[in-house]
Amino acid sequence: xxxxxxxxxxxxPRRTAFTELVTTLPGHWLSVEAPEVLAxxxxxxxxxxxxxxVVSLDGRPLAWARSHGQQLTWFG
Length: 76
Prior knowledge:
single chain; alpha+beta; globular
């Protein structure tokens, strides 16, 4: 399952239901969402003052990404 910057449009209860469901499906879940949309503890600071989204695989944050792919900054 892949989605980019769409869950902010989904009401919180349905967003929670989606994340609970998608983690039970076979395969992988790749998300690119604003940091306040999906709860990720301990994110590093974004690389600059521009808007960044969090790239996550199966709920694990991996990188900061600019909203239209202009920049990608991997964590660690």
